[in-house]
Design goal:
Helix content: 40-55%
CATH architecture of the largest domain: 3-Layer(aba) Sandwich
Largest sheet: 5 strands, mixed
Strand content: 15-25%
CATH topology of the largest domain: Glutaredoxin
Strand order of the largest sheet: 5-4-3-8-9
Distance between the termini: 64 Å
Order of helices and strands: HEEEHHEHEHEEEEH
CATH superfamily of the largest domain: Glutaredoxin
Number of strands: 9
Number of helices: 6
Shape: globular
Number of domains: 2
Length: 195
């Protein structure tokens, strides 16, 4: 019996290792070596929103989609913890923009409700595939539509970085998927203090 339990544990461990590599591969879907970043304009629930509209603030950009089952909610939850940990004065210097790669399904009003679930200060934008693809290329985001047998019909495989843009609109830092909220908070506070 002990030997069977040992074999089961080894089998489970191997499955977890393979699953871990698969998840990592999906999350690291491929990032351009040095994303250029830069301004863009997409659609929000209030109309067109450009990165220039929040010039003068630090901006966190995150690319994903509202139907994402785990990766996006994880990162949005972590950034929510950061925003809830900042003072009102600090939050006034920082903006968060969720860029949906799924303009086909994610409409601006729906997106706004989605991100406000995480924090009322979060903003969300999207656009047609050509516009979204152009912005994704600027920030080195890799993504692809993947057919699914689920009711959704398809999912999106996408890289999962958070991008920090300085008040001049320049991309200055990237954070890996699921970076701990205390690490994010420390990095953000350091940037805000340097202003």
């Amino acid at each position: 019996m002990g030997r069977v339990n040992g074999l089961i544990k080894i089998g489970v461990l191997l499955v977890l290792i393979v699953l871990g590599f698969a998840i990592h591969r999906g999350l690291s879907y491929g990032l351009q070596p040095k994303p250029e970043g830069g301004n863009f304009t997409l659609d929000s629930a209030q109309g067109s929103l450009s990165l220039h509209d929040v010039k003068g603030k630090w901006v966190v950009l995150y690319f994903g989609y509202a139907s994402c089952p785990d990766v996006c909610p994880t990162n949005l939850g972590l950034w929510s913890q950061v925003f809830h940990s900042l003072s009102a004065a600090e939050r006034a210097q920082l903006a968060f923009i969720f860029v949906s790669l799924d303009g086909e399904r994610d409409k601006p009003l729906q997106l706004e409700r989605y991100v406000h679930y995480f924090h009322p200060d979060f903003m969300a934008v999207t656009g047609n595939e050509a516009k979204v693809s152009r912005v994704a290329r600027q920030y080195g985001v890799k993504w692809a539509k993947v057919s699914s047998q689920s009711a959704l019909g398809y999912t999106l495989d996408h890289s999962s970085y958070s991008y920090l843009v300085n008040p001049d609109g320049e991309l200055v830092q990237m954070f890996h998927h699921a970076t701990a909220s205390d690490v994010l908070l420390k990095a953000i506070k350091a940037r805000l203090k340097s202003e």
